[in-house]
Amino acid sequence: MKKTILLIHTGGTISMAMSAEGAVMPNIENPLMKESNKLASLADIIEIEAFNLPSPHITPKEMLQLRHVMMEQIMSQQIDGVVITHGTDTLEETAYFLELTTNLSIPIVLTGAMRSSNELGADGIYNLVEAVRVAVDDEARDKGVLVVMNDEVHLAVNTTKTSTSSVNTFQSPQYGPIGLITKSRILFHHAPIRRQYVEVDNLSKRVAMLKVYAGMEEDLLDVVLACKYDGVVLEGLGQGNVPPSVVKGIESLIQRDIPVILVSRCFNGIAEGVYGYVGGGKMLEDLGAIFATGINGQKARLKLLIGLNTTGSPLNLKDFFL
């Protein structure tokens, strides 16, 4: 008996076409909506469109809307898995948002394309077929939100876009993919050991993110305070260090109960409080800054945003970011 897969389209390059002038643009009608017959042998497909947006246009509000659309469908009928087509620029953020705000055993798989639908070597339909193959695989259950691109399966918590144009853009630094896709099977070789879930109904709080650099000006954190952000993520140097010039600004935010989350701007490794000099991670930790373990800046920003907007009792943010 075939499984039932909910296929949700959100836009992105996978649903675009290149014009005669060479500009890749959204279509009035999503071309993928005509391709569901290619999936009929794999599953019974329930196909809907949540919205049709280039992924740089997607904000956390659209991510929450997508979550609500998906949950409404799942609650109203028997669904064995979900596949979401999405633009690649912010795909990792939407995937991570769904990872933190859903608590499902069924597979949730995001996929996209690096080449538009009418380009030579278009990869959209291929990735979509593979995403459905993963979603119907029994071993994909209980692994959290997955990203499927270019014959690989990645965890939403680990994967990131690493190239502006390569079809192999999605990688999981340090961890690698959790599965490989061949012509005949899906081979999973490890699974997550921990998942987190937070109930969120709205996103009224705001979180800023700043990349730290040599000689960073001290007044930048004053702007965060003046603009009344509710939290800030800093992509620190090395293991989570900052120039001395911004320490006063960090301390000022923390004193006003505005959480400061530190990650590293490095591609690999984990940020943690090690150095005790002025601006060193240990000093910042002692001031009350929180280190995010094993995630990049954009995901830490989403995690803080979700943590600040959680329904019910406020979260212990330090424990949340462990």
From TrEMBL:
Keywords: Hydrolase. Residues 206-321 form the Asparaginase/glutaminase C-terminal domain. Its EC number is 3.5.1.1. It catalyses: L-asparagine + H2O = L-aspartate + NH4(+). Residues 5-193 form the L-asparaginase N-terminal domain. The active site is at 13, 88. It is an enzyme of class 3 (hydrolase). CDD domains: L-asparaginase_II. Belongs to the asparaginase 1 family. This is asparaginase. It comes from Lysinibacillus irui.
